[in-house]
Amino acid sequence: MINFRKATEQDVPAIIEMIANDKLGAQRENFQDPLPSEYIKAFKNITADPNQELMVVENEDQEVIGTLQLSFIQYLTYQGGIRAQIEAVRIKDNYRGQGIGKQLFEWAISRANERNAHVLQLTTDKQRPEAIKFYEDLGFKASHEGMKMHF
Question: Which of 26, 112, 111, 99 lies closest to 66 in space, CA to CA?
Answer without folding.
Answer: 99
